[in-house]
Write a structure and sequence with these properties.
By secondary structure, this protein is an alpha/beta fold. The chain contains five helices and four strands, in the order βαβαββααα. It is globular, with a radius of gyration of 14 Å.
Amino acid sequence: MKKLPINFFEEDIVHHLKQKNAVRSWINATIEEEKHQLQELNFIFCSDNYLLNINKQYLNHDTFTDIITFDHSEVKGIIYGDIFISIDRVKENAKTFKVAVSDELHRIIIHGTLHLLGYPDKKKEEKAKMTKMEDFYLAKRGFIKG
């Protein structure tokens, strides 16, 4: 099996993503279905405070968030980026929405991937489309167990 250039890192927390290879395959299948090519994709799991510092430093926002996506691609159709995910926010959101932490984490993972695929979510209509696409691709990860 070809090793996919999808990496998972931890910054200031310990979080062991289950079934990494299945998650990699799911993300890659999403990218291929959207007619893009994967160059490299890094997911960095971190704390609220770590992501807050990134939010302040790079986006000038002084708020907690669950995800920040950096697109490093210089060529349209090529996926090359870093996705920072606050595990603290993921756990809090899972409680709020009454879903499993793994399901919420997968939603956030695919959300960041969709941003790199060109899906915005600033306007109401864009958010609705983003949620629809998240649900569509989450349904395709059936082989991944929490």
